[in-house]
Each structure stands twice: as structure tokens, then as C-alpha cells.
């Protein structure tokens, strides 16, 4: 299928490909360009190692582009906080309004690059220590464009390796041999991190952590703690917390003898299973042997996300837990 493409668009796409080469992706439907995508970095000359921030610009061309504005998406921001992204978005909006009727992709790349160059230092926090990046901090940018204090990443990688080894020691020999080898990975996106831990280790701890006042429990924290424990109790009571000791529901659906009958027909096993349940039920005339009866001291009704599925993973009869009175 071929369609007539606006010459302004053809020229723009041609120029983008000629200049950005592999760094730009043009998606088309037939011969019509629909999406232009490129990663924008700050200007640092040839020194790629000094680029601490980046963002992927996706320009979705609307049918009447450039007489109508394209839709702009900024994806995978690295080292940029929400405030800066919002600012870039609003500048883009103004730029689109100014440039209506003419190709705008180069203008957008320039605008974003200017912003990135002006703040070519990661904003936000180091996700390991939750302190920010301050002057004097030694930090590292991973291949996946995530930033950490070198000190923090060293500790993370060292304890990751230790944990791997501990888990490995629990396995029998034949499983140890088959297990994948330890790979240091980014705590944010799990991309493999290739860096020398020994060098990272020599970095000083984050400046803000050194200057932070000593930790003490504040009344706000205590209030938050009370609020959260109340929420947790409520979630446990509702079956929303899986595997929390004996307090909550079991991770698997609790099926009853009645379920077994419904799924497989009566069997000896089901009858056997029914006996203790009936005994536990202090209503003699009740033939349902439903262990999920509210108030039963033996088991609580399972009200978790998998109710309605039986142990074999097939959709089964919805248990009493789903419809019983609350
Ligand atoms: Zn840190
Ligand atoms: Zn990462």
C-alpha cells in the first residue's frame, strides 16, 4: 500500500535518518511514517560517560501533521525527577503551538537536550539509601542509566552475592552445579551490572547520610505505625495477606469435602475428610459439613484472590467463602 506523504514529513524523516542514523527509529504503516523515536542525551561532546540523564522521545505523527501537532510521549526517563519532566512537557506544549505547520522533531530534540544538559546530574534519590545526590558525592551510572551512590551500590552487590551464596549452600550438590552463576544486577531494573566492586567500595558514604541527624522515633512515626498495624489487621481479616503466619488464609484455596463431591463425585476420601469437619461443627442437624461456616473455630473462610479456583488450578465451584454472610 502506498499513500501520498506530505513532502514536509518526507524531508524531515530523511534528515532525521541522515543525521541520527541508528539513533532514530521510524515506524511506518505502509510507506507512511507514523512514529519517530529517539533517545535524547545531554550535550557532553564526545564524552558519553559524562551523560547522567536521558529520556526516550516518541513522536506519534497525527494524520495532518505538521498542520496538526503530533502526540508526544516521553518514556524511560533516567535521572530525571517528576518536576523536571513536567517542566519539559509544558515546554514541549508551547513549542508545538509555536511550530504548527512546520516539522518540529528537531526542535523538540533540541529543547529536551537543552534541559538535560542543564541538569546533567541525577535528580531524585539513590534507591538504596533513599538520600539524594549532593555535591561531593561519588556516584555511578550503570549501563541501564540508573544512578546510585558508589558506596551504596557496593554494599548492595556485596550483600547480593552473599545472599546468593547462602541460598546456594542450602541446595544439594547436583542442583548447585545446574544453578545459574551469580550475576550482579541493578536493584531497579535487574539489568546485569558490570562494575568493579572493589573500586566502588573505596567511595565515601553519601554526604547526606553523614550529615543527617541521628535517627529517632517521632510522634508522627508512632501515629503512622498505629495506622498501618490497624490496616494490616483489617487486610488479614479480609484475606488480603497471603502467608502471614497462622493469622491469615493459606496461600492455596481451602477446598471442602463438598467441593470434592462437586468436582469428582462422592469418594471415600471426601467422606473421610468430612468426618472431622462435621464433628467440629457444633450444629448437629447441619449436613453441609462446610468448614467455612462463619465463626468456626477451626478454619476461617478463605476470601483471598484465588477463591473460586480449586487446588488443581481449574475454575471450580465458588466456595461458601465467596457468598457467605460477612
Ligand atoms: Zn545511596
Ligand atoms: Zn537499572
TrEMBL record:
Coiled coil: none annotated. Residues 126-190 form the RING-type domain. It comes from the Eukaryota. InterPro entries: RNF25 (IPR039133), RWD_dom (IPR006575), UBQ-conjugating_enzyme/RWD (IPR016135), Znf_RING (IPR001841), Znf_RING/FYVE/PHD (IPR013083). GO terms for molecular function: ubiquitin protein ligase activity; zinc ion binding. SUPFAM superfamilies: RING/U-box, UBC-like. GO terms for cellular component: nucleus. Transmembrane segments: none annotated. This is E3 ubiquitin-protein ligase RNF25. It comes from Papilio machaon.
